[in-house]
């Protein structure tokens, strides 16, 4: 079993452990063997849920996802192994990060390997996030369904051979595999951040000092427009304003807008393209509530050509943590001594980042009034 598979197994065990303990019970010998195995493990670390009651409350009482349905997404088939219920969908990255999808495509699991990021979420943002999401059902902030953290001593933890923290979040690409089976056009997606900042990989020596693979990890560009009615645009920007205000108040920067575009089948009824009756929009959790159309399930463009989804991701970089402070100091010295390139997206102020982020979002939207259609 390889590294990715062992990490996947540790994630699944953390999600399903309570059910397994009820089924098999425990013994002193079994407990000792488990502790011995856990200590000498390099990749299959012991993970525990952080604040499980809070996330369970969000899932059950605000997103209508029962605990049984949630855990079922992490269960392998009758003959399957634990690691087979998660599929790696990204490379391990320079920092050893992982990216998995559940077999049913409903949830994504993403590692949060940097201490400054997972400590910010745990210590500063978790309580406000839970409270905010409970009263903002139409928020575009990604729905985080669980937060997993390593516990206990192990070689893998000491050597940092596997990620120590993971978030489980809903997948707004859910339904893409079914769309492929129906022969529909491939879904497109973009991970968007303001590109007007200083990016060393791109801006030092015109990018000649870094590889293309490194530069490809920078934010995407959306060379088109989201065509919306006035009402749709107002709803979109209202959610963005509220969400980014919340993030700025808690010192977060460098978050991104994850945008998904589906092409509407020519034979489809445009007026019903993004409703609950449309085969393009899955209606079972984690997509709802609230009922479609929403930016989580799909909003039809005003010209009837596309359906869009959107979510705000990666809001774990906070200005007051030690690593961001060091990066800010380095960029200030660079601007003072070498070349004045301005701030990076990770060294600017939360209010300034929010301003540029909102401008980026407004620039990709074209409002089409009813009389113009």
From TrEMBL:
<keyword id="KW-1133">Transmembrane helix</keyword>
<keyword id="KW-0067">ATP-binding</keyword>
<keyword id="KW-0812">Transmembrane</keyword>
<feature type="domain" description="PIPK">
    <location>
        <begin position="1"/>
        <end position="365"/>
    </location>
</feature>
<dbReference type="GO" id="GO:0016308">
    <property type="term" value="F:1-phosphatidylinositol-4-phosphate 5-kinase activity"/>
</dbReference>
<keyword id="KW-0472">Membrane</keyword>
<keyword id="KW-0418">Kinase</keyword>
<feature type="compositionally biased region" description="Pro residues">
    <location>
        <begin position="282"/>
        <end position="293"/>
    </location>
</feature>
<feature type="transmembrane region" description="Helical">
    <location>
        <begin position="27"/>
        <end position="46"/>
    </location>
</feature>
<protein>
    <submittedName>
        <fullName>SAICAR synthase-like protein</fullName>
    </submittedName>
</protein>
<keyword id="KW-0547">Nucleotide-binding</keyword>
<feature type="region of interest" description="Disordered">
    <location>
        <begin position="270"/>
        <end position="298"/>
    </location>
</feature>
<dbReference type="InterPro" id="IPR002498">
    <property type="entry name" value="PInositol-4-P-4/5-kinase_core"/>
</dbReference>
<dbReference type="GO" id="GO:0046854">
    <property type="term" value="P:phosphatidylinositol phosphate biosynthetic process"/>
</dbReference>
<dbReference type="GO" id="GO:0005524">
    <property type="term" value="F:ATP binding"/>
</dbReference>
<keyword id="KW-0808">Transferase</keyword>
<dbReference type="InterPro" id="IPR027484">
    <property type="entry name" value="PInositol-4-P-5-kinase_N"/>
</dbReference>
<dbReference type="InterPro" id="IPR023610">
    <property type="entry name" value="PInositol-4/5-P-5/4-kinase"/>
</dbReference>
<dbReference type="GO" id="GO:0005886">
    <property type="term" value="C:plasma membrane"/>
</dbReference>
<dbReference type="Pfam" id="PF01504">
    <property type="entry name" value="PIP5K"/>
</dbReference>
<dbReference type="InterPro" id="IPR027483">
    <property type="entry name" value="PInositol-4-P-4/5-kinase_C_sf"/>
</dbReference>
């Amino acid at each position: 079993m390889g590294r990715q598979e062992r990490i996947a197994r540790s994630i699944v065990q953390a999600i399903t452990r309570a059910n397994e303990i009820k089924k098999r019970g425990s013994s002193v010998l079994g407990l000792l063997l488990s502790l011995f195995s856990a200590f000498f493990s390099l990749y299959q670390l012991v993970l525990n849920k952080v604040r499980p009651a809070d996330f369970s409350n969000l899932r059950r009482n605000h997103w209508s996802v029962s605990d049984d349905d949630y855990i079922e997404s992490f269960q392998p088939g009758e003959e399957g192994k634990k690691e087979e219920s998660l599929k790696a969908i990204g490379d391990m990255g320079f920092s050893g990060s992982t990216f998995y999808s559940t077999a049913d495509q409903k949830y994504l699991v993403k590692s949060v390997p940097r201490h400054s990021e997972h400590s910010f979420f745990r210590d500063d943002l978790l309580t406000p996030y839970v409270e905010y999401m409970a009263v903002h059902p139409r928020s575009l902030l990604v729905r985080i369904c669980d937060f997993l953290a390593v516990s206990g001593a192990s070689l893998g933890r000491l050597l940092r051979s596997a990620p120590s923290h993971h978030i489980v979040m809903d997948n707004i690409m859910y339904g893409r595999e079914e769309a492929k089976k129906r022969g529909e056009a491939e879904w497109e997606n973009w991970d968007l951040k303001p590109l007007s900042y200083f990016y060393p990989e791109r801006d030092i020596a015109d990018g000649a000092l870094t590889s293309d693979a490194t530069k490809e990890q920078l934010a995407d560009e959306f060379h088109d427009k989201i065509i919306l009615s006035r009402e749709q645009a107002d709803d979109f920007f209202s959610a963005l304003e509220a969400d980014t205000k919340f993030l700025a108040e808690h010192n977060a920067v460098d978050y991104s807008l994850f945008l998904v575009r589906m092409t509407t089948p020519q034979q489809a009824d445009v007026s019903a393209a993004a409703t609950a009756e449309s085969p393009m929009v899955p209606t079972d959790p984690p997509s709802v509530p609230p009922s479609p159309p929403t930016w989580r399930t799909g909003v039809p463009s005003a010209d009837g050509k596309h359906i869009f989804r959107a979510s705000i991701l990666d809001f774990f970089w906070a200005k007051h943590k030690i690593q961001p402070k060091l990066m800010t100091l380095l960029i200030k010295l660079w601007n003072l001594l070498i070349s004045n390139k301005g701030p990076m997206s990770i060294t600017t102020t939360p209010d300034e980042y929010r301003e540029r982020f909102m401008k980026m979002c407004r620039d990709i939207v074209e409002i089409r009034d009813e009389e113009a259609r």
